[in-house]
Amino acid sequence: MHKKELRSKYKALRRELTENELEEMSLAIANKLLTLPIWEKTYFHIFLPIIEHKEVDTELILYLLSGKDKEIIISKSDFETRNMTHFLLTDNTKIKKNEFNIPEPVDGIEVPSNKIDVVFVPLLAFDKLGHRVGYGKGFYDKFLSECKPDVIKVGLSFFEAENKITDAHEADVKLDYCVCPTAIYQFKKA
């Protein structure tokens, strides 16, 4: 399937999810994350979910990261330049929804992309080769290409992999893992 078709399909599937299903699947994803070989790392980038789009609830993952004394990084998006600015999440961080209902830090301690060890990546769909489909704005492809070469990219998905995204480009940044409620896909060579 093409990215455009996959966006429509998975937005529709998400809309059908109940609040209870969202909670249960988000919990299952958080529990599966514990089995990944990422926990010796220090700097973890996480997205704050757009509730209206029924994205994976990352609150439980935030608790895991906090409990393991990890440095948590969240971003602010600039829709004109397609750049993301990354900030350390602290007790003093003020979060505000932008015009697209994305919860973002108002300001804070800036963290360069090349310092980040692990990125939890939002997505609508992904395939068995590690390609992902987001909302199509290119924020994460740009951000991930700015990270250090060995950054670990972990997709979070309510749904299983598609066989192949037919219009994936070589320039698209592939995932290393994708965690679903019932499975973990590994694309990175061990």
Automatic annotation (TrEMBL):
<dbReference type="GO" id="GO:0009396">
    <property type="term" value="P:folic acid-containing compound biosynthetic process"/>
</dbReference>
<dbReference type="GO" id="GO:0030272">
    <property type="term" value="F:5-formyltetrahydrofolate cyclo-ligase activity"/>
</dbReference>
<keyword id="KW-0479">Metal-binding</keyword>
<dbReference type="InterPro" id="IPR037171">
    <property type="entry name" value="NagB/RpiA_transferase-like"/>
</dbReference>
<dbReference type="GO" id="GO:0005524">
    <property type="term" value="F:ATP binding"/>
</dbReference>
<keyword id="KW-0460">Magnesium</keyword>
<feature type="binding site">
    <location>
        <position position="48"/>
    </location>
    <ligand>
        <name>substrate</name>
    </ligand>
</feature>
<dbReference type="GO" id="GO:0035999">
    <property type="term" value="P:tetrahydrofolate interconversion"/>
</dbReference>
<dbReference type="GO" id="GO:0046872">
    <property type="term" value="F:metal ion binding"/>
</dbReference>
<keyword id="KW-0436">Ligase</keyword>
<feature type="binding site">
    <location>
        <begin position="132"/>
        <end position="140"/>
    </location>
    <ligand>
        <name>ATP</name>
    </ligand>
</feature>
<dbReference type="InterPro" id="IPR002698">
    <property type="entry name" value="FTHF_cligase"/>
</dbReference>
<dbReference type="Pfam" id="PF01812">
    <property type="entry name" value="5-FTHF_cyc-lig"/>
</dbReference>
<feature type="binding site">
    <location>
        <position position="55"/>
    </location>
    <ligand>
        <name>substrate</name>
    </ligand>
</feature>
<comment type="similarity">
    <text>Belongs to the 5-formyltetrahydrofolate cyclo-ligase family.</text>
</comment>
<feature type="binding site">
    <location>
        <begin position="3"/>
        <end position="7"/>
    </location>
    <ligand>
        <name>ATP</name>
    </ligand>
</feature>
<keyword id="KW-0067">ATP-binding</keyword>
<keyword id="KW-0547">Nucleotide-binding</keyword>
<protein>
    <recommendedName>
        <fullName>5-formyltetrahydrofolate cyclo-ligase</fullName>
        <ecNumber>6.3.3.2</ecNumber>
    </recommendedName>
</protein>
<dbReference type="InterPro" id="IPR024185">
    <property type="entry name" value="FTHF_cligase-like_sf"/>
</dbReference>
